[in-house]
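1st attempt posting a full record on here, be nice pls
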Amino acid sequence: MALLDILALGPTASNSIRFLASEKLATGSKPQLTKTFVEQWFRERGVTAGEARLMPDGEHRRFILISGGQSLLLDMSLNSIAKNEAIRLESDTRDRPFFESVWGVARQLT
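the predicted structure (as tokens):
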């Protein structure tokens, strides 16, 4: 998982980490994202207040809101993190309101 690669570089996940994922990841005969998987991922990292929700299909932004009012923008697909694409830091002034608006309408992962 790409997030594990990023965390291996030294940052830590917040105890109140929130994931937004595509509905497609949690559907089909072999879903890639399940509530059990997320709960185990949180447990392995000592996260007790984390949550994952499914956003409506159509949005495909890949970014991580980090401390200090910044966003880590990921240009590569999280399925192919080794591709030669850019990652950059910028202010979260646009990404944080976007995240909160999508979070508000996203459904619980069940």
